[in-house]
Amino acid sequence: MPREPLIGIVGKPSCGKSTTLNSLTDANAKVGAFPFTTIDPNRATGYLKLDCACSRYGKEDLCKPNYGWCEQGKRHVPIELLDVAGLIPGASQGLGLGNKFLDDLRHADALIQVVDVSGTTDAEGKATRGYDPLEDIQWLQDEIRLWIENNLHKKWNTISRRHVATKSTTVETLRAQLGGYGASKEMVAKAVKSVPNLPPLEKWDNEWITRVVKAFMNVKFPTVLALNKIDHPDADKNVSKIMLKYPKMTCVLTSALTEVFLRKLKDQGYIEYEPGTEFVDTYDDLGPDCGLKPMDPVLKDRVESIRDLVLYRFGSTGVVQVLQEAAKKLDLVPVYTVRNIQTFTGGHGKYVFRDCTLFKRGTSVSSVARAIMGEVTIASAEGVGGKRVAMDDIVEPGKNDILSFKVVPGKDDAKKDDEGAKGEGKTDSKKTKHKK
Ligand SMILES: Nc1nc2c(ncn2[C@@H]2O[C@H](COP(=O)(O)OP(=O)(O)OP(=O)(O)O)[C@@H](O)[C@H]2O)c(=O)[nH]1
Ligand SMILES: [Mg+2]
């Protein structure tokens, strides 16, 4: 970041990565009950639900985001998701689709690791029965680590010699090597600091390199587990085993397939359904004036069993929660840029808080300005009440998260001022407008 945050969806073949992507976005990624259905990565926009600034000022009725949507103070902010090819044991050595898949992941800021807890696919994603998915979690993490580690091993002698010759710090040397993964200096520093008793870099053996890379992975790819296919009868026992073995990992139980199905029924006018909740209403629940289509007995049965097997048992299909948890790991701050800091409007019109962009907590006001306004020279930044905000202040939830930037008038004033008037930045051009 400052580019938009990106969440990678990883896991072995056929665990349900593409289904998870489809369940969270408008994407229609190909899904199949055989390994390597996905080869090229699928990128799509999901929406993160958070409390909107409009609710702080009682302006819910006037809130009309340019991207995403806001419903009674709950805002759905776009966030990018990347579904990649399946990973099998040995991928870091090139097995399966190997390194190609791993390279696609470089720019992910957090990972959703999808685990098939139904036990119906083996480590390579082939159909089977009674498979124990417990080991899938560790080897997948190991493959990602080995991918990074092998790249270091190949050149370690040179890296170490140059490190000594140039009298670089550990952070400088590692940053140069790990920059390709989008690692900032701060990230590398945080990773290095978290390894106890770390000797000087030139004394590292393979074990120290492994420890450092593990620490780096924790910082660069914070991971949430999506224990998927909970609708399957064998899922329960596997879920319990995983939770016992990994008590510190964030686990969310999901049924991506159920979510895709419910969203489809909603689009077809059969049900009312708010994603992320357990509430599904049908024609039978709401009566003939509800505007919903009546369902045939087969469809009714299917909805009933979804209620029993997933919604009432687990509280939801889990996919919305898994995205929320992944975003939490990123520690994101929604920053609202407005033209008029008194009214929170975009300059023209009555609508407020039209633009909201996600930044990592600790991002400076000047980095926000650069990301939103591009290369124009900023004269000043104002916060709520028109108070001047220092460019090196940082953004936090509720503090410096509503900003208005004034640009320095220059030769092409009119054009720049117009860009400023939008107060909304270049990043938006990449996003798709969400029609609700
Ligand atoms: N029962 C059940 N099946 C699911 C669920 N999610 C996905 N599946 C099924 O699992 C199979 C694989 O799903 P995909 O989404 O293509 O899996 P993938 O991980 O993207 O697979 P690759 O692209 O081959 O790596 C399909 O038959 C899906 O219908 C779920 O929540 N429950
Ligand atoms: Mg796929």
Name its key features.
436 residues, alpha/beta, Helicase, Ruva Protein, domain 3, Ubiquitin-like (UB roll), 3 domains, seven-stranded mixed sheet, five-stranded mixed sheet, 13 helices, flat, disordered C terminus, binds guanosine-5'-triphosphate, binds magnesium ion
* Overall pLDDT level: 90
Q: How far is the first residue's CA from the last residue's CA?
A: 28 Å
What would CATH call the architecture of the largest domain? Orthogonal Bundle
Cα-based radius of gyration, to the nearest Å: 24 Å
Strand content: 15-25%
Tally of distinct domains: 3
Task: Tell me the series of helices and strands, N- to C-terminal.
Answer: EHEEEHEHHHHEHEHEEHHHEEHEEEH
Judged by helices, strands and strand pairing, the structural class is alpha/beta
CATH class of the largest domain: Mainly Alpha
Report the bound ligands by name, code or SMILES: guanosine-5'-triphosphate, magnesium ion
* Secondary structure tally: strands: 14
Shape: flat
**Main β-sheet description:** 7 strands, mixed
CATH topology of the largest domain: Helicase, Ruva Protein, domain 3
> Which stretches of 5+ consecutive residues score pLDDT under 50?
411-436
| Helix fraction by DSSP (H/I, runs of at least 4) | 25-40%
* Count of separate DSSP helical elements: 13
Protein name: DEBR0S5_05710g1_1
Biased composition (Basic and acidic residues): 410-430
Domain OBG-type G: 5-274
InterPro entries: Beta-grasp_dom_sf, G_OBG, GTP-bd, P-loop_NTPase, YGR210-like_G4
